[in-house]
Structures are given as structure tokens and as C-alpha cells.
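Second attempt. The first submission of mitogen-activated protein kinase kinase had a stray character pasted in from the spreadsheet, which I only caught after the job came back as garbage. Lesson logged: always re-copy from the clean sequence file. Corrected sequence (229 aa) follows.
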Amino acid sequence: MDLHVIRQSNASPHIVRSLGYILTSQDLYICMELMTSCLERILKLVGQGLPEAIIGKITVSVLNGLNYLIESIMHRDVKPSNMLMDLQGNIKLCDFGIAGQLLEHLPPSVTLGCISYLAPERIERKPYDIRADVWSLGISLIYLAKFQFPYEQDTQFGMMLRILNNPAPTINPQDSKFSLEFCKFVERCLQKDMEKRATYSVLFTLPFYVKSDEEKVDVAEWCHKYINK
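This time the job returned cleanly.
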């Protein structure tokens, strides 16, 4: 699936480009454009939650990348380690090894993707659609904002029980570090009922996205402070 998705996605500036591939009798090697690091590693270099303005630019890029795929494909493994940044401040999605052809609703599956970021409907083995990726985006944004995962890390089974039984994670709007617009955006991503969760088209209209898309932020300058340490 990885090569098929990449070939379909080469025109998007929000998805890592394929420069070609080498096929042997046993292996497939895909040559990708050079990116500097993933957001998981950058977050650990920073050592604390990222500034909201940077998270805004990440949101714009990732959401546009996911939306580009929407005609036939959903990612199914949205998380910071699959969001890459280069020294020019470009942010792109990668790793389509488990991406799925998008039917009206995909058949139940809980075996694909990182448990920590899975939407409740996937854990319950219910049919799901692109809104499962929206949930994963919301969890990613909380982690990037707070450098703290919203669910206590233990066994995979314990993690699944927390996702199903605990209230949906939120960012407290009383926290002065974050704008109300950002808190509301995350809330719209993390509705446990898939039917109430925002689609990409709705997320594009929310104030946090609109502000982040229009705002001038030098992501490259910010990135250099940590990558060059």
C-alpha cells in the first residue's frame, strides 16, 4: 500500500515526496525526499509543549495532507512520529504502510495503527471512516501542546479500556498557555461519538485553523533553535 499511496500523493506539498523506488526479488526500497526530523523527536529536544503558533502551522499542514488523501485513502496511523519537518519549516505526513483504501466505512480492525492514538470506534471494532484520523490528530495535538500523553501508559489492554471508558481528553480553556480557539478545535476532534466528531471540511472552518492558516510564523527559525543544538 505504501508505494501506491505515495505515487498518488506526490503532488501535495503536505506529504513527503517519493523520488523513485528500487524493486529487488525480495525487497522494495522507496527513495524519499530528505526531511530533518519527526515531531516526536523535536518535541523531546524541546523538552516541553510546543508554542501554540507552531502547533497551528503543524495543524494546517497535517490537515491539508489528510484532506488531500480523502478521495480514496485514509492514513490510519496519524501521530507525531509520522509528521516530519525540514529545516525550511515545512511539515509533511509520512509512513503510509498501513493506509487503507477509503470505502464508505472501512471494516472493523484494531490491529493497525498505534493503540495510543486509536479512536474508540476502532477499538470497539466498529466500521469507521476518516473521522478516526481526526481523533488521532486531536490526541497528537494534546501531546504536542503539553508534552504529556492524555492517557496513562500501561498495557495495551489497559490503554484501550481508558480510551473507551474515560471521558474524551481535553485542553483546559482556563490554562492561559492556550487560546480558547485551540481548546475548541481539539474538543471538536475528540468527540467519542464518531457521528458528533468534526470532519475535515468542518475543521477547515474553525477559528483556530483559519487563524493558523493566515498567521505569519517563522517555523524554520524556531526549528533551527533545537535541531542545531
